Records
---
Amino acid sequence: MMLSNLILAAAHPLVHVNASLNTLATLLLILGFVLIKQRKEAAHKVVMLAAFVVSVVFLGCYLYYHLALQLQTPFGGTGISRQIYFAILISHILLAITVPPLAITTIVLGLRAHGDWLPDSIKHASSGEQAEYTRAYRQRHLRWARVTFPIWLYVSVTGVVVYFMLYHWFPAAVAA
């Protein structure tokens, strides 16, 4: 059996679940971006909410793996691959910390821009006031999304890259 296959066999199943969830989140984020560029707002909303749900499930699995199970996987690469790995990992971790508040804020603004989650004062306002309210939230949503999307996408993609670097490309030697 190849070393990479031994590492994969020895790895906790959650690492593969996490990589799959990150991959799915990445695909949903890209699809959401394509849909909004095509002005398919309803589909964009559904897909982005699905990306958020997948990311929340990932976060739960990730925290369980690291906090409850207290599992760690050493990086097996050396030299330049080790430097690249840690550069990716550090940027991934630092930006990942920002994703939940960025995503939640962007989603709430988007829902309000779409007419969902309107405050009672706006629900009972004239249609002109409601239109002005949703227009303002659409602009705010767009400003936040321009920051949130590339960070969220980077974190999702680099999560998968870290997985491949740890378990496929540069696995640590398995103790016999």
Note: The radius of gyration is 20 Å.
---
Amino acid sequence: MSGDPYDGHNPLLVLLLALAGLLVTPWVGVRAVVLLIRAGATRSARTGAKGLAVLAWAGAVGVYTWGVLHLAFLDESGQSLACREAVGKETAQRVEGYEPSFVPLHFGCRVDGGRIHEAAVPGYVNPAAVIFGVIAVALTVAVRSHPEPAETTATSAPSST
């Protein structure tokens, strides 16, 4: 970090996260839909839970990517404008620097006195990503802790040896 109080997010990392999210989210979402269709056809509760877990992962990645996309289109003038809108015209002259963070995802404007005002990233992004993430982890743990029952075949008979 250069120490400049007006440094925002690393633009290369923002670009990489945005591209990764734009590729992963639809891929995981399609995988979830396929699993849910398969669960409906086979009436398998485990496959249905697996599909819901994958869908929750897609939601978590998608919401986080949505927040990153808000940052991807912020140049220096966009950062200044976002801060001006967040703190108001009267306070805009007292902005001392920016407070960027990837976890939790936010772009904050620090005014004199140390108070941080959220700007650029919608307020629902972090709570939604956390909720989707918790649901995804819970469903993934539940699916992994209940292994798929082994299929039995009618031709296999117990051996008498």
Note: The beta strands are 95-102, 105-111, 116-119.
